[in-house]
């Protein structure tokens, strides 16, 4: 066992886990942050997408050993206190989720896109979201939600 200090959702967490433990399992099993989902375990589906210093990353292939003091981890639980982030609101308005399993990862990926470019074209959205799969196939609603959220963000 090894001790780690992680900054997650603006809170410092001390965890004791085996070296090499996946960040996904630290989040889910040790800290109870179950919004980050396990999908494939090989960074191909995007269900486990979180932000590391604002960059979208797949938590299933990150080791807790990969983190240094000062790096900020954000999960879907840390995106907003009341689910009122413009992307979350657009997701509801456009009824983007069907089963909903992939959507915390989808939302985290979309937030990173819109922070870099609040008015992406459809082609830019498709390219940026390419690593996040939706087995229900709600891609058109996801794209529409991202466009809607982008307009809200750009207007601020």
UniProtKB/TrEMBL annotation:
Taxonomic superkingdom: Bacteria
Record keywords: 2Fe-2S, Iron, Iron-sulfur, Metal-binding, Oxidoreductase
Domain 2Fe-2S ferredoxin-type positions: 2-79
PROSITE patterns recorded: 2FE2S_FER_1 (PS00197), 2FE2S_FER_2 (PS51085)
Gene Ontology MF terms: 2 iron, 2 sulfur cluster binding; metal ion binding; oxidoreductase activity
Name of the featured protein: Isoquinoline 1-oxidoreductase alpha subunit
Organism for this UniProt entry: Algoriphagus yeomjeoni
């Amino acid at each position: 066992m090894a001790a780690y200090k992680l900054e997650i959702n603006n809170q410092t967490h001390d965890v004791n886990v085996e070296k090499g433990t996946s960040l996904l399992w630290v989040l889910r099993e040790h800290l109870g942050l179950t919004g980050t989902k396990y999908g494939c375990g090989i960074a191909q589906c995007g269900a486990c997408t979180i932000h590391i210093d604002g960059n979208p990353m797949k938590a299933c292939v990150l080791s807790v050993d990969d983190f240094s003091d000062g790096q900020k981890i954000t999960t879907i639980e840390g995106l907003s206190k009341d689910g009122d982030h413009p992307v979350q609101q657009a997701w509801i308005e456009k009824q983007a989720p069907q089963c909903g399993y992939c959507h915390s990862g989808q939302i985290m990926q979309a937030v990173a896109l819109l922070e870099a470019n609040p008015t992406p074209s459809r082609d830019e959205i498709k390219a940026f979201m390419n690593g996040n799969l939706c087995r229900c196939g709600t891609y058109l609603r996801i794209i529409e939600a991202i466009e809607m959220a982008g307009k809200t963000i750009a207007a601020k």
